[in-house]
Request: fold
Amino acid sequence: MFSLTYEFKLKPTVSQVSLFEDWLEQCRRVYNYALAERKAWYKSRSCLVNACSLHSEYIIPADAKRPTYASQCKSLTAAKEKIPALRVVQSQVLQQTLKRLEQAFVSMWERNFGFPRYKKPGRCKSFVFPQLGKSPLKNGMINLPKIGWVKFRQSREIPGDALVKQARIVKRASGWYVMLSLQWGVSVPQATPSGEAVGIDVGLISFLATSSGLTLPRPRFFVDLQRKLKLLQQRVNRKKLGSNNWRKAQTKVAKLHEHISNTRKNFHWRTAHLLCNQAGMIFVEDLNCKALAAGMLAKHCLDAAWGQFFNILKQCCFKRGVFFLEVDSRKTSQICPNCGVETGKKDLSERIHKCNSCGYTTDRDVAAAQVVLRRGLAAVGHTVKMLPGGQGRWTPYELRISALIGPRVSMCSLAENSTRC
Reply:
C-alpha cells in the first residue's frame, strides 16, 4: 500500500466553526478524564506494602484491571447515556482521542517519552475522522460525518484513483485545515543507487555544503524576527489574562510563529528539490539533533532545523526516485577527503581544510561533504577517486577491477546511456 497526505485550507461557515470548537473541547475533556483514570490506577499501585503515604492514597480495588483503550471505549459508550454533550460528537472521533492517549503511553514505555500531561483549554488542536462515507469529495467540498459538506480551497488536484482513508481537522492561528490521507493499492519500489552522487554537510555558517562545491547560506528565520516576537509577547503580558485583547495579542504571536515555521519549511522543500535535480544519489550525516538542540548553540541549531530538512529531503528523494542514505557523522571534518589521512580536530574558526600530507586545500564544509560522499559510496558498494581539483569520480566495484587491466570507463558516459532516476 502507498499513502500520501494532502493538506487543504477549510472555508467553514460560522456555525461550522462553532461546531468544530465544541468538538475540540469535548475531545479535550475525554482525554483528560481518561488520563486521570489511568493516572489514579498507577498511583494506587505505587504505594508501599507495609505503610501508607502521609499525604493521601488512591483506594482502588486490588482486582481492578489496568485501564486500556478497549476498556475506556466501553466506559465512553456508557458515559454517552448520562452526558448529552458527548452524543453530539461523532463516536469514532472520541475513540480516536482515546487511541491518541494510548499511543502516548506506548511512546512513554518504548521511546522514553515523558508521562502524558493534561491538556489545558485551547491546547487540543485537532480531531480525526478515521472513516469517511462514499464519495466524500466533490467540487472543492468535503462531506464530514455529522457535520455535512464543508468548503475547502483545493490548491492541487486530488487523484481520482486514490482512496480517501481518513481526514484530520486541524486548528491553527491562520484558520482551519484538513489533512486528507490518500491510499493507493500499489507498491512503490525503492530507488537503486545509480546516477550522480552528492554528499551533504550541514552547518551554521553555511546551511549546507555539497561535495561538488555548492554552498548555501543559512537563512535566520527565527533570529531575524526575534525582536518582533519579543515585542508581541510583551504586549501579551500587559493585557488582562483571559480578556479579548489578551486573546487577540496571543493570536498575533501564534501567527508570527506559524509564519516562521512556514518560511522555514518552504526553504527546506525548495532546497530538497534543488538537490534532487542535480543528483541520483544523496548521502547525508546521521546527526544527533536532540543533542545539538541541548548545546550552547541550541537556538541556532533549532532555527536551522536539520532534522526537519533531512526528513523533507528523504520524502523528496522517495517521490522523485533518488537514492537517499545516512552515513556515520563522526570525524567528517577531521579527515582529508583526498588522501584519507586524519588531520586532527579543528577549531570552529578554521574554515579552510588544508592537508599537510597531500596538500589538498578546500573549504572546510566542502571537505566534510566529500568525506560523507566517500562513506556513502563505500556503503553502497562503489569507490571514489578524488581528482586534483577536488572533484570525485566514482565507479562501481567491477569498473575498479577493469581499470587495473584496461582503460578506465567513465561513469558520465554510462549515465547518459542508462536511465536516470
The chain has 13 helices and 16 strands. The longest strand covers residues 2-11. The radius of gyration is 27 Å. Residues 281 and 323 are 5 Å apart (CA to CA).
